[in-house]
Specification:
Layout (H helix, E strand, L loop, with lengths): L4 H9 L3 E6 L5 E6 L2 E5 L2 E6 L4 H8 L2 E6 L7 E10 L3 H13 L7 E12 L12
Antiparallel strand pairs: 1-2, 1-5, 3-4, 4-7, 5-6, 6-7
Length: 132
């Protein structure tokens, strides 16, 4: 699935995305993420700073969904598979970015969401509709 330039710009400029995960027992969890940005038209980087339940969920059930905090600007939900990097280039880049925002942050990991589905969350008749 391909994110449009508008989608990528809006993810980058918003200061919060909501990350939804589920445990292997199907217990849902949602958390605000302050550091998220697209790496390309199919991948969103999420910096894992304070994740506890979420991080455990992602390791055992590597699927997630995000929505931008201001849905009036970006009325989409992005779903996909995640890859977790606790070392290497993605992790190093995530640490550098996080520390440039707030020096005391100590990221646990770089989480890459590989987007494979996009849905509308725009109020109205197309709410919940899959974007093709």
């Amino acid at each position: 699935m391909v994110l449009t330039q508008e989608m990528m710009d809006t993810i980058e400029k918003n200061n919060i995305v909501w990350l939804a995960t589920a445990s292997t027992d199907d217990v849902p969890n949602v958390v605000p993420i302050g550091l998220a940005r697209p790496l390309d038209s199919g991948t969103v980087l999420l910096v894992a700073n304070f994740m506890n339940k979420t991080f455990k969920n992602l390791k055992s059930n590597p699927k997630a969904s995000i929505a931008v905090g201001n849905v009036s600007e970006c009325p989409y939900q992005f779903k996909g598979d995640v890859e977790i990097y606790e070392s290497g280039k993605y992790f190093d880049d995530a640490v550098q970015w996080a520390k440039s925002v707030m020096a005391q942050l100590n990221p646990k990991a770089a989480v890459l969401l590989k987007v494979n589905e996009i849905y509308s969350v725009q109020p109205g008749p197309d709410a919940g509709k899959k974007i093709e």
